[in-house]
């Protein structure tokens, strides 16, 4: 795989922490592998959630059902990404869930969001 950066992995990781977009990365089962600083300031992400299922962060049953459907559709290749809007603590969020692939193999999901 060819790299599109001259930053290096450490500086790229620092950039992910500072961009004004929330990012959460999960494995195929929905376990949280990573979230950035913006994410923890905007939605419910805490260090003790690493390794836990992202469904744990969703309190409404409808939200969990929606998330399961999105993950299922992405896993089956039925959709390339899923976009929706959500209200969180009086803030309107634009949310995108995308497959996370390495060398063409699906290894998880990337949830990104920003405040509208």
Explain what the structure shows:
This protein is of the alpha+beta class and 116 residues long. The protein has a single domain, classed as PAS domain (Beta-Lactamase), CATH 3.30.450.20. It contains three helices and five strands. The chain has helices at 9-18, 37-42, 61-75, and strands at residues 22-27, 32-35, 82-88, 91-102, 105-115. A five-stranded antiparallel β-sheet has the order 2-1-5-4-3. A hairpin with a 4-residue loop joins β1 and β2. The chain is globular and about 45 Å long. The model has no long low-confidence stretch (mean pLDDT 88).
What is the element layout, followed by pairings?
Elements lengths: L8 H10 L3 E6 L4 E4 L1 H6 L18 H15 L6 E7 L2 E12 L2 E11 L1
Antiparallel strand pairs: 1-2, 1-5, 3-4, 4-5
Summary keywords:
116 residues, alpha+beta, Beta-Lactamase, 5-stranded antiparallel sheet, 3 helices, 27% helix
Q: Beta-strand level of the residues, as a percent range?
A: 25-35%
Number of domains: 1
Helicity level: 25-40%
Question: What top-tier CATH class fits best?
Answer: Alpha Beta
What integer value in Å does the Rg equal? 14 Å
Mean pLDDT: 88
Distance, first to last CA: 34 Å
Order of helices and strands: HEEHHEEE
Here the CATH topology equals Beta-Lactamase
